[in-house]
Amino acid sequence: MASAAAAAAAALLLFFHLQLLLLLPAPSGAQPGFISLDCGGAHDHADAIGIQWTSDASFVTGGQTAQLLVQNGLQSQQFTTVRYFPADNRKYCYTMNVRNRTRYLVRATFLYGNFDNSNVYPKFDISLGASPWSTIVINDATTPVVEEAIILAAAPTLSVCLSNASTGQPFISTLELRQFNGSLYYTTDEARFFLALSARINFGAESNDSVRYPDDPFDRIWESDSVRRANYLVDVAPGTERISTTKPIFVSVNEEPPEKVMQTAVVGQDGSLNYRLDLEGFPANAWGVSYFAEIEDLAPNETRKFKLEVPGMPALSKPTVDVEENAQGKYRLYEPGYTNLSLPFVFSFGFKKTNDSSKGPILNALEIYKYVQITMGSQDAIIMASMVSRYSQASWAQEGGDPCLPASWSWVQCSSEYAPRVFSITLSGKNITGSIPVELTKLSGLVELRLDGNSFSGQIPDFSECRNLQYIHLENNQLTGELPPSLGDLPNLKELYVQNNKLSGQVPKSLSKRSIILNFSGNSALHIVNNAISHTIAIICVVIGAIMLLGAAIGCYFFTCRRKKKPYEDTVVIAAPAKKLGSYFSEVATESAHRFSLSEIEDATDKFERRIGSGGFGIVYYGKLTDGREIAVKLLTNDSYQGIREFLNEVTLLSRIHHRHLVTFLGYSQQDGKNILVYEFMHNGTLKEHLRGAADEKITSWLKRLEIAEDAAKGIEYLHTGCSPTIIHRDLKSSNILLDKNMRAKVADFGLSKPAVDGSHVSSIVRGTVGYLDPEYYISQQLTEKSDIYSFGVIYWSSSQATSQSQMTTLGSTAVTLLHGLDHTLRAVTSTPSLIHLWTEGTTCSQCGRLRRWP
Ligand SMILES: *[C@@H]1O[C@H](CO)[C@@H](O)[C@H](O)[C@H]1NC(C)=O
Ligand SMILES: *[C@@H]1O[C@H](CO)[C@@H](O)[C@H](O)[C@H]1NC(C)=O
Ligand SMILES: *[C@@H]1O[C@H](CO)[C@@H](O)[C@H](O)[C@H]1NC(C)=O
Ligand SMILES: *[C@@H]1O[C@H](CO)[C@@H](O)[C@H](O)[C@H]1NC(C)=O
Ligand SMILES: *[C@@H]1O[C@H](CO)[C@@H](O)[C@H](O)[C@H]1NC(C)=O
Ligand SMILES: *[C@@H]1O[C@H](CO)[C@@H](O)[C@H](O)[C@H]1NC(C)=O
Ligand SMILES: *[C@@H]1O[C@H](CO)[C@@H](O)[C@H](O)[C@H]1NC(C)=O
Ligand SMILES: *[C@@H]1O[C@H](CO)[C@@H](O)[C@H](O)[C@H]1NC(C)=O
Ligand SMILES: *[C@@H]1O[C@H](CO)[C@@H](O)[C@H](O)[C@H]1NC(C)=O
């Protein structure tokens, strides 16, 4: 609701002149519209300013409570305890009831206080519903980290979740919810963005104390400008003076800054006000508003007119502020601002008086928020919420938040698309009774359903909407009725386990005709129709995981051909007519990895004649297949793999990965104790050779180097974001970046990659190559995608020899995005290219000053 007068004064400025409302006194006692959770606290209590705190126990499941061991002595009761959670792949959510379509301020605080007696400062993520909100980085035991956001509720509950700990354990001290009344914080795209607080400053404050409830009925915290912190309100202009008044200030609606905040201000007696502050998480788009009120009594011949000055943004200086005129009087609020402004990390701003003004500028208060994208949650969120609402007593049903994001529920796996779908549900042995929840039949992305070992009763519902279902485990329940024939129409069904239920009738023809694994033993009243098929083809075999299917099928094939052993009654039926077996094989083979015979490999490589490289895990040989394709054969050293299972896991992983900038995996061989991986042959060898090689093959073109860096970045990005779960390469270096005939780069040797469960860290024995190893990983032993990005940064700097920021910006967008994820460690290093040189040579870093602890 912009008033016409204000809009005329400055087209770019935004005005919220809302209807005049009577200022209502702050409510006393418990605050309506407030939720104030004392996390880990056992008792309800009121604090010094009258806020009622309640224990968080009924808002969250899981976690443990702890007392702080270190305090600075000034903390109120709600800051004496925390609730903390395991550092695993899960998320831990607080769920609070809200009013749909209402704006809320959400504030979470984190005061470490060495609660775990380990003095390891935690680092973890918080999210609002499915949307990443912030990364909490604790830097000191006695200073609370505070995060605030303003969000329009879009559902009857709002959840705040903790997840993805990269150091220490996630914890929380307090969680507060404050309901807004009006529309001061209305923004044009509230369905897509929420506001995260960056700065809310009370200028001219009379003490270091912030102003909050009850002065502010919504309990916003207006921070004093006299507090001294690093890079907070520095570069203050000479002539800046603090002024204050006791006269009432007219603020038109009660969502605007409280009177106490508006009663103080700074003025620039020499004609200007200047400040500089760091905006955490910027550059970003911001919502920023300044609050002015004339609180000095100016003589009739005096004026106060000024303009905003932001270096590099001359357009902002067009409108002139004349507080008295704009606010239509003294002691009245005027609040111009920008609803969408792109701001840098280091934000310098000021106000400068105009030539015809007799007084310098004034500033009473300021708010800056960052726009944070609202992540669309899982497409199945509503279905899943309805399903878990049936089990209000079960802890697995209380995990809260979105089923998939930012981490999925512990018993759910989701696809990695933009709005993920649930593809796997594992509720084995959860003591669940009643019928199978009908919601499950609505999950159209479902591939795997495991409900075995419960007490499910009633009939098996109709799963025909779940066209992707491949694995159904309903064994060891109390299910009755017949097997629905529609199960046989599921086009992708591979396994159906229903043994040990109370099913009856006959196995539908639609199922017995199919090439699937069906175990229906232990259902005394259930019979198979066509005995002929089951007697000739029924095969006993044990199946471990999807990739083993091929191995299992081969095993079974030989088994039947050579032995024709009489099968167990009703146990496993691979009900495939003999002539169809061949096509069944090729189907399995094409969707998993190709298996070469050892003799094929020996022929192709001339008995491992030409060695073309070696890595930590094996030796690479050149080969040529009978069809003319050139291959690179990696013969793994025997101690690289513990056994068949690990090897096949790797093969499964490799066969899932296809990308133009990743070296193509062609297949594997496992015979006579040799574990072999077969890749496409890359004609131009490794990037390393071209960076350090003989002059004629050295790449000198700057653009060519950029192209290579960008290619590699795309490959790495795919490993990180295109695969679910995420894959971390762990050993990126210039000798693992290969060049094809056309000198385009592909990333190689991701055979050692381990999938990162749900994108979070994987703890494992540190390995990698000295020089490329992320020191943070080395110290924490926590593996994240950042470790790859670190290594990529090293490759990038060493290959591009970029020495300036401007060269860096000419890099392709994927590489820039990747490098954007870099943390301080690398930034510190990249500012010293010569240091990088040392690192890439693999030299120890004893000369490297602050990096000395790095080996
Ligand atoms: C919340 O409000 C929005 C808009 O009015 C509506 O689309 C949505 O269905 C509501 N959600 C619930 C759960 O009531
Ligand atoms: C919100 O507005 C209602 C009246 O519309 C008022 O009673 C209530 O006190 C307001 N809440 C706050 C925190 O100001
Ligand atoms: C405000 O806090 C700073 C430290 O942040 C301290 O040096 C200063 O004395 C305090 N001022 C007042 C008025 O308390
Ligand atoms: C305003 O008038 C007073 C005298 O009434 C004079 O002292 C002062 O200099 C004048 N200020 C300006 C800016 O003209
Ligand atoms: C802000 O502006 C940018 C660029 O003009 C646009 O992409 C973005 O969506 C806008 N944000 C909001 C919240 O309107
Ligand atoms: C104000 O005065 C200065 C110096 O006298 C001049 O450079 C500037 O252009 C003037 N600004 C305006 C807006 O007239
Ligand atoms: C299973 O659930 C029943 C109630 O439905 C309960 O009595 C029993 O203790 C539960 N068993 C386990 C192992 O949780
Ligand atoms: C089939 O079910 C029976 C009974 O639980 C079990 O003994 C047998 O091992 C199962 N077969 C397979 C291959 O899982
Ligand atoms: C987990 O944290 C790491 C490091 O803080 C970050 O790079 C990664 O994106 C986070 N993962 C998710 C799923 O948010």
Automatic annotation (TrEMBL):
Amino acids binding ATP: K634
Compartment(s) of residence: Cell membrane
Entry GO MF terms: ATP binding; protein serine/threonine kinase activity
Bilayer-spanning residue ranges: 537-559
One Gene Ontology cellular component: plasma membrane
Membrane topology recorded in Swiss-Prot or TrEMBL: Single-pass membrane protein
Reaction catalyzed: L-seryl-[protein] + ATP = O-phospho-L-seryl-[protein] + ADP + H(+); L-threonyl-[protein] + ATP = O-phospho-L-threonyl-[protein] + ADP + H(+)
Leader peptide range in chain numbering: 1-30
Keywords (A to Z) from UniProt: ATP-binding, Glycoprotein, Kinase, Leucine-rich repeat, Membrane, Nucleotide-binding, Repeat, Serine/threonine-protein kinase, Signal, Transferase, Transmembrane, Transmembrane helix
Protein name (record): non-specific serine/threonine protein kinase
Organism of provenance: Digitaria exilis
